[in-house]
Amino acid sequence: MESVIRSVAGHLLGSGKILGGLAIIEDAYHDTAQITALPADRLIEREAELLRLVKSWMGKLPVPALTS
């Protein structure tokens, strides 16, 4: 499903009809933590960066990783 969403997003952003987007990031309490304006030409790239940022905020359990 991710590949379909990325493909459609690429076509929409490439059409020139979308100027940009607004990323609203919430914290663990569902409060707004950050609002970022994203230009259309960097929207997908910045979205990936913001996802990494949010994942770094998530709590982690101190358990060794499972290996197969």
Description:
This protein is of the alpha+beta class and 68 residues long. Helix content is 41%, strand content 22%. Strands 1-2 form a two-stranded antiparallel ribbon. A hairpin with a 5-residue loop joins strand 1 and strand 2 (32-39). The longest helix is centred in the C-terminal third of the chain and has 15 residues, at 43-57. The chain is flat. The two termini are 26 Å apart. The model has no long low-confidence stretch (mean pLDDT 89).
Key features?
flat, two-stranded antiparallel sheet, alpha+beta, 68 residues, 41% helix, 2 strands
In brief:
With 68 residues, this protein is an alpha+beta fold.
Low-confidence stretches: none
Largest sheet: 2 strands, antiparallel
Helix content: 40-55%
Q: What's the pLDDT, averaged over the residues?
A: 89
Following the backbone from N to C, one meets helices and strands in this order, namely HEEH
What is the terminal-to-terminal distance?
26 Å
User: What does the oligomeric state look like here?
Assistant: single chain
**How many helices?**
2
Task: Write down the overall geometry.
Answer: flat
Strand content: 15-25%
Helix/strand-derived category reads alpha+beta
Tally of strands: 2
* Rg for CA atoms: 16 Å
Report strand order across the widest sheet: 1-2
